[in-house]
Write a structure and sequence with these properties.
Structural class: mainly alpha
Distance between the termini: 42 Å
Number of helices: 4
Oligomer: single chain
Length: 127
């Protein structure tokens, strides 16, 4: 939790810096935003590794097959990538591309979740 508060404070600080710098130099504010994005993505990746390790421990303790956990993790990755990409498109002024990315993400997520749906239907059918 303490890490999240630090990241939130850093986000607020970066946003204020970008607004202040942006008044004088758009290029410099873009560089600051990209640098902050790299730092935040590094933090997110480290937390993603932690989450994956915890999911493996939970799956092993519960006896759930890893094949049932994998679609959920894929959908989380798709959602994250789609959100970032769609927001970048919106920032660039291309709402149509952002909408298409979100639709593609939903369709891809459904395709990834089909094996899990099949397993659930088999389980319900066996009851």
């Amino acid at each position: 939790m303490e890490d999240m508060l630090k990241v939130a404070a850093l986000c607020i600080g970066v946003c204020v810096m970008i607004v202040i710098i942006g008044e004088g130099s758009k290029v410099m504010s873009t560089i600051v935003a990209i640098a902050a994005g790299v730092v935040f993505m590094g933090f997110a990746v480290s937390k993603g590794v932690y989450i994956m390790n915890r999911i493996k421990v939970i799956a092993a303790a519960s006896g759930i097959e890893s094949g049932l956990i994998l679609p959920v993790v894929k959908v989380l990755g798709i959602a994250l990538c789609a959100r970032i990409t769609a927001e970048l498109c919106r920032d660039m002024g291309n709402r149509w591309a952002a909408c298409n990315i979100e639709i593609f993400a939903v369709i891809t997520s459904v395709i990834c979740m089909l094996p899990l749906l099949e397993e659930v239907l088999k389980l319900v059918g066996s009851i």
